[in-house]
Structure formats: C-alpha cells, structure tokens
Amino acid sequence: MGLKASRIRVPGLAGHDDPAAAALCTRAAAGDQGAWDEIVERYAPMVWSICTRFRLSDRDLEDVAQNVWLLLVDQLGKLPDPAALAAWLAATTRRECLRVATASRRPEPLEPPDAGVTCEEVIMAERNAALRAALAELPASCQPLVDMLVSDPPYSYAAISTALGIPVESIGPRRARCLERIRESSALRGLADIGGNRPGGDPGA
To answer: What is this structure's pTM?
Structure first.
C-alpha cells in the first residue's frame, strides 16, 4: 500500500515481546522468503538509525548493515528469544558499529547510543511493525483514504474528494471509522499502553 505507519498515532503501542516476530523468525528459518522480506522491512529503519549515529563512512555503514542481516541469517532458529527480535537486532547493530569503528581507528560515536536510546528505537520499530500489520488488515474502502492522509505531505480534503469521488464532508467521519478499525485490529491487541499517543489531526480541506 505504501502507507507510512510512523505517521499514524494510535494509543496502546509500545515495545514488547512480539509473538509476530517469533513467528516470522520461525518461518524465515524454514526458508520462507516472504517472512524474511517482512523482517527486513520491519527493522531496517531501526538498524540504519543506529548505524548513522557512528562516525563511519558510507561504505562502512552499508557493511555494518549487511553484517547485521548476515548474522541474523546465521542465528535464525537459534535465537534465545525470537519474540524480542527487535532488541536482538538493536544490540547486534550497536556491537557491529563499535567493532567497525574500533577497527578503523575512528573517533567515538557522535552520540554514543545508551540503553535509553536503544530502547526508544526498539519501541519505535515494534510500533511501526504493528501499525503496518494493522494497515494491511484495513478493508479496501479504507486503504486509499488512509494512504492519502498519511502521505508526505498529506493530501488536502479537496484533493482526496476529487481523487476518490467522495464528498468533502464525509471524509472526516470515514477517517474516524478507519482509525477505529486500526485500533481494533488484531495486530494491535495485547500491546502495553504507553499513553499520550493519539491519532493525528486532520490535514484540513
């Protein structure tokens, strides 16, 4: 769908042991290419975010990211806690960055990633993964509307009305119904509440 999950604010999302991640690991270890592709799509932004805080060349950044995925391939089926895949990837990425920085005799990271920063990145990765899964469960009537609302920049209500052939005054109520479907999605059930996140405001007509 091309939806940007990170732009949708839904309460009740936090970093956690994710059964879906464990299932993906099991499937990928069994040779399911689709499961592997989903793992990379879920966590590549987090891996890259951690890498970019180190004083590494572009080539080293790419090498670190590649090494992280190769290490995961080697460990699939052997991870002690597959449900904590995001935390494993975050720790592995940080370790690989430090190894490459030390081997290259480069300065210390611009912002040495402490436990708090890593935790925030794990939470964000799991939040976005859950939202992508929830977006995939939306009915066909919601998908194009949400896609346009979370585009960057978002479409105006007038543009949405023209593109989708729906009255401007019906967009707000339909948006609310679609967000409610996201909140009720099975992909979001059972996540710990961190509070304070609410759906973003209307882009305006």
So the answer is: 0.56
